[in-house]
Automatic annotation (TrEMBL):
Biased composition (Pro residues): 261-271
Top-level taxonomic group: Bacteria
Official protein name in the record: N-acetylmuramoyl-L-alanine amidase
Spans annotated as Disordered: 1-25, 259-281
Organism: Sphingomonas olei
Length: 281
């Protein structure tokens, strides 16, 4: 097994057009969240009170609130809703966030649920620190004997995308696979690049996708007609499914780091990877 070359980049101030500061608004009891998030169902996924909202070019960031699926609640650091990311009309994706970033309590690893910009399907990611034995490994070079079992198999292995950048724009962070920075506080502009701090500037991310033959890809008109789609009982993998798979992956990666046996995964049996020869293609 060979390590994948690092793609680490220097953290430098953005040279593009000047980003407009996204000023967070407190979520008060009188705030009408449904029109901002797109549906009443989205509001039910944000249990509790308080928090803040920031908006930029059709993308909404919610902080200070948990995110709830049908079977668990995660203490989210950031929750993003991107206008137009999901198909119009009713569906199991209605009300779901388009990105949720949180730190898994059991493993201590950063986790992300992210919606694809083209197919509108969800994917999941777990970031491991530099001292993890699999840091830098290509996902295709990881032996099955290690016991990693996740939906469709691992399909992603990369270092943090571009940083994160010193001046964090909401529209960019809604797509970035990278951990949430500890400073500065919620998207306020930086005066100096050295003001940036992060828990680990070079986390290595492993991920999986839900766009296989046995998955419904809501943004694809032809996906439901693909060969063997009916035989494989294709279905949409919702936020509850993906968050559970992310937590399973985090537990497996934690066990590998600790030199312990990989714990049994939670949830129903996974679809057989061999059913989709394209492996998410």
């Amino acid at each position: 097994m060979a390590r994948k070359p690092s793609k680490s980049k220097s953290i430098v101030p953005s040279r593009g057009r000047k980003a407009t500061a996204a000023k967070p608004e407190n979520i008060g009891t009188g705030t009408a969240l449904a029109p901002i998030l797109g549906s009443e169902r989205a509001v039910t996924k944000l249990p509790g009170t308080g928090g803040s909202i920031a908006r930029e070019e059709g993308t909404v960031l919610v902080t200070g609130r948990a995110y709830a699926t049908r079977d668990r609640t995660v203490l989210a650091d950031e929750i993003f809703y991107v206008h137009g990311a999901k198909p119009s009309g009713d569906g199991p994706w209605l009300g779901e966030a388009d990105k949720v970033a949180w730190r898994d309590e059991a493993s201590g690893y950063d986790c992300i649920m992210l919606r694809d910009t083209d197919g509108a399907f969800l994917s999941g990611y777990v970031g491991v620190p530099g001292d993890h034995p699999l840091w830098g490994w290509d996902h295709e070079g990881i032996s099955p004997e290690l016991g990693i079992e996740v939906h469709g198999g691992l399909t992603y292995s990369e270092i943090c995308q571009d940083g994160p950048s010193p001046q964090r724009r909401i529209v960019a962070e809604a797509r970035r696979i990278c951990h949430v920075s500890l400073e500065p506080l919620r998207y306020e502009p930086l005066k100096h690049a050295t003001d940036y701090r992060a828990a680990d500037a070079h986390a290595w991310w492993f991920g999986f996708s839900c766009n296989h033959l046995y998955d419904v890809v809501p943004g694809s008109r032809t996906h439901g007609n693909r060969f063997m789609a009916a035989e494989t009982s294709a279905e949409y993998r919702d936020d509850a499914y993906v968050v559970r798979e992310v937590v399973n992956l985090a537990a497996q990666l934690r066990a590998i780091a600790d030199g312990e046996p990989v714990p049994p995964r939670e949830g129903p049996p996974l679809p057989a990877i061999g059913l989709d020869p394209q492996r998410g293609g």
